[in-house]
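Structure tokens please, single chain.
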Amino acid sequence: MKRYSEHEKQGMIRDWHSSNQSKKTWCKENGITVETLYNWLDGNSVDTEPDVTWAQVAVIDHHQAPVETGGLEIQFGNVIKVKLREGLGRESFRMVCEELMRIC
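Here you go.
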């Protein structure tokens, strides 16, 4: 049986959280037992919250770069641009944030 470091456990738990898969499906696809995942989740030895880092944010005057009212636009350099429309649900917003954290 493979032994995982705390860092590996944390990474795998984060992967499972962001996958939106059931524990059973995710474990099968990643070669671990559901019992192992439950032990990691219940063991309190694994930090399930992602590390938080801060980034400088520049606010652009809406006269320079007009944005539709009732929404939010997030841009990372010239590579990533995300437009969130008014009415986006809380769960959808969480998923967008998780994906941005994963790729940034």
